[in-house]
């Protein structure tokens, strides 16, 4: 029933031939996250998209590639956003997209397709997700993407995954000791941008399962330099936690256009001064 219910969306997005193939093939309960990823040919992408046969990966495929969750070209603010990217390049800088909560790399593939001039830094704490993310990043031209197995935080240190109840697309993290089991490095946004020589923050996308409460608790100067911040709020998953309060507190002193699109809040920064 799920395949039949979603099939019209696949047909609309990919056309009758590819839509039927993908709609019947990339839907279902799937298997375990430790299983090997398989290549899936998707129109508009150079090289295959890599997926595990899991419900989580199919869900990410549905969000990113069928519903086009990160298609931001449709907004009127896009013309100005592209102009600012051109200004960065004219000053010998590199527009950087931070993909916080990279999961298996389908947001990365979408950003790479839509913005071929940008460098992408994708961060993912989970080892099983990370190996699929790297397979997807490997389909890009050399130097287009930097993959980091780690977490995004307000300060450098180490984090570990602490909750798997919501599957591999809903992993939570917390700070821990460097020698704790499963510990991975935690990086600030500034640290991640600095991984790209000449990098300047252009887009920061955060789908980090409530960790925005910590990320926006300190070291937030990058907010005043980033042209677009994309956040998936998680208060629905963590009732009364106030996980998005620090996000709005950090942005409130500055002027942004706020757009709601599906599960996302898109914040386009006004030029100040």
Number of strands: 13
**CATH domain class name of the largest domain:** Alpha Beta
H and E order: HHEEHHEHEHEEEEEHEHEHEE
Determine the number of helices (DSSP H or I, runs of at least 4 residues): 9
Radius of gyration, rounded?
18 Å
Strand order in the largest sheet: 5-4-3-10-11-13-12
Second-tier CATH architecture of the largest domain: 3-Layer(aba) Sandwich
Shape: globular
Flag low-confidence runs: none
The computed structural class is alpha/beta
Q: Structurally, how many domains make up the residues? A: 2
CATH H level, superfamily name of the largest domain: Vaccinia Virus protein VP39
Quick one: biggest sheet? 7 strands, mixed
SSE layout and pairing:
Elements: H1 2-14, H2 16-25, E1 38-40, E2 49-51, H3 55-66, H4 78-90, E3 94-100, H5 106-114, E4 119-124, H6 127-137, E5 145-149, E6 151-152, E7 157-163, E8 172-175, E9 184-187, H7 189-193, E10 199-206, H8 212-215, E11 228-231, H9 245-251, E12 256-261, E13 264-269
Parallel strand pairs: 3-4, 3-10, 4-5, 6-9, 10-11
Antiparallel strand pairs: 1-2, 7-8, 7-9, 11-13, 12-13
Explain the overall architecture.
The protein has 273 residues and is α/β, with parallel strands linked by helices. It has two domains: 2-66, no CATH class; 78-269, 3-Layer(aba) Sandwich (Rossmann fold), CATH 3.40.50. The protein contains nine helices and 13 strands. It has helices spanning 2-14, 16-25, 55-66, 78-90, 106-114, 127-137, 189-193, 212-215, 245-251; strands at 38-40, 49-51, 94-100, 119-124, 145-149, 151-152, 157-163, 172-175, 184-187, 199-206, 228-231, 256-261, 264-269. The strands form three sheets. A seven-stranded mixed beta sheet has the order 5-4-3-10-11-13-12. Helix 1 (2-14) packs antiparallel against helix 2. It is globular. The model has no long low-confidence stretch (mean pLDDT 92).
């Amino acid at each position: 029933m799920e395949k039949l219910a979603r099939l019209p969306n696949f047909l609309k997005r990919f056309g009758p031939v590819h839509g039927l193939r993908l709609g019947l093939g990339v839907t279902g309960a799937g298997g375990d996250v430790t299983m090997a990823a398989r290549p899936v040919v998707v129109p508009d992408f150079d090289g295959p998209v890599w997926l595990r046969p899991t419900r989580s990966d199919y869900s990410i495929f549905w969000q990113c590639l069928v519903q086009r969750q990160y298609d931001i070209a449709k907004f009127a603010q896009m013309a100005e956003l592209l102009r600012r990217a051109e200004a960065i390049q004219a000053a010998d800088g590199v527009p950087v997209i931070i993909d916080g909560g990279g999961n298996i790399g389908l947001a990365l593939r979408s950003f790479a397709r839509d913005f071929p001039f940008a460098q992408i830094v994708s961060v993912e704490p989970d080892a099983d997700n990370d190996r699929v993310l790297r397979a997807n990043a490997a389909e890009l031209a050399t130097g287009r993407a930097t993959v980091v197995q780690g977490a995004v935080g307000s300060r450098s240190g180490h984090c570990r995954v602490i909750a798997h109840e919501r599957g591999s697309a809903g992993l939570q993290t917390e700070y821990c000791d460097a020698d704790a089991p499963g510990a991975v490095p935690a990086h600030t946004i500034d640290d991640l941008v600095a991984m790209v020589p000449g990098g300047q923050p252009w887009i920061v996308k955060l789908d980090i399962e409530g960790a925005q409460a910590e990320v926006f608790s300190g070291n937030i100067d990058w907010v005043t330099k980033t042209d677009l911040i994309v956040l998936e709020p998680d208060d629905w998953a963590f009732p009364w936690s106030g996980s998005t309060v620090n996000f709005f507190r950090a942005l409130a002193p500055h002027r942004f256009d706020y757009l709601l699109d599906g599960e996302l809040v898109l914040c386009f920064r006004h030029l100040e001064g």
